[in-house]
Each structure stands twice: as structure tokens, then as C-alpha cells.
Design a protein that fits this description.
The complex is a heterodimer. By secondary structure, chain A is α/β, with parallel strands linked by helices. Chain A has 20 helices and 17 strands. Chain B has one domain (2-19, 26-82): Non-ribosomal Peptide Synthetase Peptidyl Carrier Protein, Chain A, CATH 1.10.1200. Chain B has helices at 2-15, 41-55, 65-68, 72-82. In chain B, helix 1 (2-15) packs across helix 4. Chain B is built from four helices and no strands. Chain B starts with a helix and ends with a helix. Classes of the chains: A alpha/beta, B mainly alpha.
């Protein structure tokens, strides 16, 4: 099967649609500047902000201004509408990565919530719910009646992982057409979080430059419509390009830092090329992850140099235009790659002037040249490394029906289990009690099943690592964004647990996390079963995790859910 | 100085969540990173925050922590000459 891209849509600091984005890229016009919509005390930090208030975005989407809608969802709606309109079709699968989800509303309304008000805003907090909000909107304007919705939440690689799942579902006949990508707004939460890591530049960022001082956060959304080439030809659709290869690995090095030699990034890039049946010399352009932190750019350069050697293609980081749109970046940048292929140009890597040893030399200014094959990188916390290869002409990808027979081995761990047999004291010091339980369950399942290192680790979590998230949120509000501790932020991402297990065992295999309400586990299983069916993996560890936080009880009562701690592990074997 | 060292040990244990450890378990002259306590880059950020919160010392470059955080003693010496509270 060849997977055709028949629609793209994008929203970011440099444009509210494809044509505005294209103009800004060609004019080398950056969208990074002072914050205007986000209300933070850290006004000295530049951001790549979409220059419209929520009220203005609601007006653009035709939504009542009084309705509670996360900003991530608003950005997502506009980009998704563009992609579906361009493709001129509906999709049955909608896969949209995010980590922020409704955090913007939660932080704005937290003090009211503490006094028993504003609960309708807080209950949109869940990452999966912010995707549901987009889906409901698209349904209401008859753009798509989705039968499958999933929200990958693997920090900054979330949207690229959404594209991977969508492609795997097409290849196994689990979807006819998929709308895939991601949406993420700025939030005080992750602005302050990244600030505690001391990796935010106080000037506009300079990816791959010797003088780089860190990243600027951005916001936006980017989606692709994927369908089998055959279907696209049948209905006479305009094909913009193809998905020809992809891979996800775990760097298995550290929760927030990339390994010096970029092992995970190297393996993911190599895997994506292999899948596409291409040689390094076939790639014309790499849209790098290129965040402009000291660590990322060195590590990514090292991986690029290892893979490409003497045939280094043109490289640039479009984060120099948009800022780092975190969970949306894989979708936005993949859509930018499609634009670049369509119009035959390599986007500039703005503000680059000084090279340094160990760093690739990016393209300083727009380069006009035909692009046949393009690579797009997105790397996230936990060493979650995803790489996509997009092509003007597609490669034939293996397809296969969903295998029915899968061997299962379940382990559920109660809260009173002695975790010390599975989790060392040094490891445990950064984990909440419930995190220790799920890690213990994972290790117990691996031991009992005798599978060794599982080929894939996938976690299902509705609310994510809530205790650490709420710690950071409450500190941030009570201190007015001052002197915050980095550890709760680092441990707050949804994919903390799946990453932790890979890191502790040096497992470079596939790693993903889904947040989708009651369907979180079903999403994780869809991911694992499509990969088992395609023969990409033979074994998988699937985790279920949720932890009770007292301050959240009212929200759960409001949506009619039970408060619960969950720590389960299942081993699947083909 | 010795009093500051003891106080600092307790603050480190709390900031880095060493639940089962007491100040007596930490050797003031042992390396904090690598061997010794085996701290990593996240801990370095926590220690930078600790200096700010408890002693009013602001480090803007995370790399500058390297020399200061060699041991509890080097940290205490730095605090004594640079503290603003």
C-alpha cells in the first residue's frame, strides 16, 4: 500500500493556514516575539505565539465566545478544518497528539475551582478530552464522523507518533482515512517548567548556532489527511505527497537529556530510511528537531553526522520561525515538509551565523531546489525519538490484516505491594507511590512472562502523572511563578512511566503513551495490535496507570467517574 | 561553617527526596555527582533552586554549578561568601 497525503492544515505564530505559512517561510519572517496573549510574569521570555486571543479564535471557528474550550483545541480545530477541506473528504480515524490538553483552562481557573466554581473549565483538563472537543466541533460542521479517536501523549514527539499510528491503521485496514497530527497551546505550566530546566533563551532562538542559549516555546497545530493511494486516485483527489517511512525509538538515556551520540535519534532515522527503502543520499532535506538547546542540537548533529556522513542533506530547524510547538511540532513540521516538497524549497534556519565543532551547518537562507524525499524529526522527553520520511513519490509499504491470536500475560499490582523488590531506593526517590506500583507491575510482568526486553512499551493513562502535575501547578500558582522545583515538572509528562522503564533497561524499542478517557487502553491496544500484525514487533508491554489526587475528586464527581489508582501490566506476544 | 554544612545536608536530603537518608550518611567531602551520592543533571537544577530559595544566590548558567557542587563542603563555602540571606 502507498499512503497518500491528500490534505494538510496548519496554524502557528507564522500563519493561520498553509498560504500564510508559506509566505512567512519564503519571506524569512519569524513569528517569535513578546508574549501578548499568555499572561505570565516571565515577560522577558520570547515566544512563538499565535497572535489571536481565545475569543478571536472562537470567532474564527464560529464558536460561542462563552463556551469553555481549551486553546489547544481551538488551534487544532482551525488546522484540522483546513486539512479536511483541502482533502475534500471525511476521515474515520482522528489521531491528535497533545500534552498540554486543557491545562491552560485549569491554570486560569484553579483558584475559582478551589472555591467550588469553574468546574466546567477544569473538566476539560484531560489531554484526550481536548482532542474530543476538536472531534465534536468537526462533527458539528459535518466535516467528519470519526469512529476512532486517539491522543498520543509522548511530549514533543506526540504529533509525529499520531502520524505513525494513523499510517499503521491504514496498512492494517483499521481505518479508511486518517486525520493525524497534533495541537498544543502555550501554557504557564510548561513555560515555567521549561524555565526550571534553564533551557529557555531570553533572545529569539538560534538552532545549531555556536551561540545558541536554548529554545523559545511556541504554539500551534498541524494535521495531515492520510489515505491509501488507490482510494485517492479513485476519487480523483490531488495527492500532495506520500508517507514512505517512519520509526520511533527510545534513546533510553535520561528523562530530559539526549545522549551525547544521539543513539535513539540515529536508530529512528535509520529505521525510517530502511522502511522507505532509501539510502541516506536519497534524502534532500531534513527538517530537524533543532530546538536550539545546547544538548539537543549537539546530540541531533551527532546522530545526523553518523547517518549521513559525507552526503549530508540540507538541514534546517523551522523552530527558528515558529518556536518549539512541543507536542504539535511533529504535525506542524511534517505539514511544513509537504509545503516545501510541493513548492520546491528548503526553509531557512533563521539567525544562524556561527558554526561550531560537532554541529551540523544548517541552511541559513531559503534554498530553492526540488525535493523528492524529506525527513522530519521530532524528539520528546523520555528520549522519545520519532522520525518520518515524506516523499513526492511513494514507496510500497507492507500491509496485513489484524492478527486475532495474541498471547496475553496480565499482572495487576495492588497499592500495598512491596515495591522494593522491583524499584530501587535511588530510582524511587523521584516517583510517587503509584508510579512505583506501576513500575513494579511492569517489571513483574516482564519477569514472569520471560519475554526479555519487550519490542514495544505502550502506556495507557487517562489523567497522566497527576500528583506531580498538581504539585507543580499549585506551587506555580502560590509562588506566582517563582522558585519552582524542576523535578515535579520533569515527572509530570504523560509518558514518564513508559520512558522510565525503557531508560532503566536500556531498551531502544518503540515507546508510546495514550490518554483517551475510558478508551486509553483500547488506543494502546490498537497501536500494539497493528504493529504485531505488521510484524514490526513480536512482543509488547502494555501498561495502565492512573493515580488519585484529592484535589481532583470534585472533577471526577462532576463527570461521574470513580476516583481510582490503577497499576496494571500486560505482556502481549505474537 | 560546620553548622552550615549540617544544615545544608538536611536541605539536600529534603530537596532531592532521599527518604531513607540522614545527614550522618553524607560525607561533607565526598563528591556529590558521579560517585558519592550519584546525582545527575536534574539534581543539579534542584541544587541551583535550593541556593536561590534558601540563600538568595542566583546562578543563571547551569554550567557554573559544576565547580560549586563538587561536595557539600565546596557548596557551603560558596554559600558563605555569596549568600544574600
Amino acid at each position: 500500500m502507498r499512503i497518500a497525503i491528500t490534505g494538510i492544515g496548519m496554524v502557528s505564530a507564522i500563519g493561520m493556514n498553509c498560504s500564510e505559512t508559506l509566505q512567512a517561510l519564503l519571506n524569512e519572517q519569524s513569528g517569535i516575539g513578546s508574549m501578548r496573549v499568555l499572561k505570565s510574569v516571565h515577560t522577558d521570555l520570547p515566544v512563538g505565539e499565535v497572535p489571536y486571543t481565545n475569543t478571536e479564535l472562537k470567532a474564527m471557528a464560529g464558536i460561542d465566545s462563552t463556551e469553555a474550550v481549551p486553546r489547544s483545541s481551538l488551534l487544532g480545530m482551525l488546522a484540522a478544518r483546513e486539512a479536511l477541506t483541502m482533502a475534500n473528504r471525511t476521515c474515520d480515524a482522528f489521531i491528535s497528539g497533545t500534552t498540554v490538553g486543557g491545562m491552560d483552562l485549569t491554570e486560569q481557573h484553579w483558584l475559582d475551582y478551589a472555591e467550588g466554581r469553574a468546574i466546567e473549565n477544569i473538566c476539560l483538563h484531560e489531554a484526550g478530552e481536548s482532542t474530543n472537543v476538536i472531534a465534536r466541533h468537526l462533527k458539528s460542521i459535518n466535516q467528519s464522523p470519526f469512529t476512532f479517536i486517539a491522543t498520543p501523549s509522548t511530549a514533543c514527539s506526540s504529533a509525529l507518533n499520531a502520524i505513525i499510528l494513523g499510517a499503521n491503521m491504514l496498512r492494517t485496514g483499521q481505518a479508511e482515512a486518517a486525520l493525524v497530527g497534533g495541537a498544543e497551546s502555550l501554557s504557564l505550566f510548561h513555560l515555567n517548567g521549561f524555565n526550571t530546566l534553564m533551557i529557555l533563551d531570553h533572545e529569539p532562538c538560534r538552532p545549531f548556532d555556536a551561540s545558541r542559549q536554548g529554545l523559545n516555546l511556541g504554539e500551534g497545530a498541524g494535521y495531515l489527511v492520510l489515505e491509501p493511494e488507490e482510494r485517492a486516485i479513485e476519487r480523483d483527489a490531488h495527492i500532495l505527497g506520500y508517507i514512505s517511512g517512519y520509526a520511533n525509538t527510545c534513546d533510553a538515556y535520561h528523562q530530559t537529556a539526549s545522549s551525547e551520540n544521539g543513539e535513539g535519534a540515529y536508530l529512528a532515522m535509520r529505521g525510517a530510511l530502511q522502511m522507505a527503502g532509501l539510502q541516506p543520499s536519497d534524502i534532500d532535506y531534513v527538517n530537524a528537531h533543532g530546538t536550539a538547546t545546547q544538548n539537543n542540537d549537539l546530540s541531533e548533529s551527532s546522530a545526523l553526522m553518523r547517518l549521513y556522513g559525507d552526503c549530508m542533506p540540507a538541514v534546517s530547524s523551522t523552530k527558528s520561525f515558529t518556536g518549539h510547538t512541543t507536542s504539535a511540532s511533529g504535525g506542524l513540521e511534517a505539514a511544513i515538509c509537504v509545503l516545501a516538497m510541493q513548492h520546491g524549497f528548503v526553509p531557512a534556519n533563521l539567525r544562524w551565523s556561527q558554526s561550531a565543532e560537532g554541529l551540523v551547518k544548517p541552511v541559513g537562507h531559503t534554498l530553492f531546489q526540488p525535493l523528492k524525499h524529506v525527513m522530519c524529526n521530532a524528539f520528546g522527553f523520555g528520549g522519545n525519538e520519532s522520525v518520518l520520511v515524506l516523499s513526492k513519490e511513494g514507496s510500497e509499504l507492507i500491509e496485513g490484516g489484524l492478527v486475532e491470536k495474541v498471547k496475553c500475560h496480565d499482572v495487576e499490582v495492588a497499592n500495598d505491594i512491596d515495591v522494593s523488590a522491583y524499584v530501587s531506593g535511588a530510582e524511587a526517590r523521584r516517583m510517587t507511590p503509584q508510579m512505583r506500583c506501576v513500575v513494579a507491575a511492569a517489571r513483574k510482568a516482564i519477569q514472569e512472562s520471560g519475554v526479555g526486553l519487550p519490542d514495544a512499551i505502550v502506556c495507557a493513562t487517562r489523567w497522566g502523572c497527576m500528583l506531580q502535575s498538581m504539585r507543580f501547578l499549585q506551587d506555580m500558582i502560590s509562588t506566582k511563578e517563582q522558585q519552582l522545583k524542576p523535578t515535579p515538572f520533569i515527572q509530570s509528562t504523560h509518558n514518564t512511566i513508559a520512558s522510565l522503564i525503557s531508560i532503566s533497561t536500556g531498551n531502544h524499542g518503540y515507546n508510546a503513551t495514550y490518554s483517551q478517557g475510558e478508551d486509553s487502553f483500547a488506543c494502546a491496544m490498537m497501536d500494539v495490535r497493528t504493529q504485531l500484525s505488521l510484524g514490526v514487533i513480536n512482543t509488547a508491554l502494555v501498561l495502565e496507570f492512573d493515580e488519585r489526587v484529592e484535589s481532583w475528586d470534585n472533577v471526577l464527581r462532576w463527570i461521574g467517574e470513580q476516583t481510582c489508582n490503577i497499576a496494571k501490566a500486560t505482556i502481549l506476544e505474537r | 561553617m560546620e553548622q552550615l554544612i549540617e544544615q545544608l545536608k538536611s536541605q539536600i536530603i529534603e530537596a532531592l527526596n532521599f527518604e531513607d537518608m540522614t545527614p550522618a550518611d553524607i560525607d561533607a567531602d565526598a563528591p556529590l555527582f558521579g560517585e558519592g551520592l550519584g546525582l545527575d543533571s536534574i539534581d543539579a537544577l534542584e541544587l541551583i533552586m535550593l541556593l536561590d530559595r534558601e540563600y538568595g544566590i542566583k546562578l543563571s548558567d547551569p554550567k557554573s554549578g559544576k565547580a560549586i557542587f563538587q561536595s557539600v563542603r565546596t557548596m557551603a563555602e560558596y554559600i558563605q561568601s555569596n549568600r544574600t540571606k
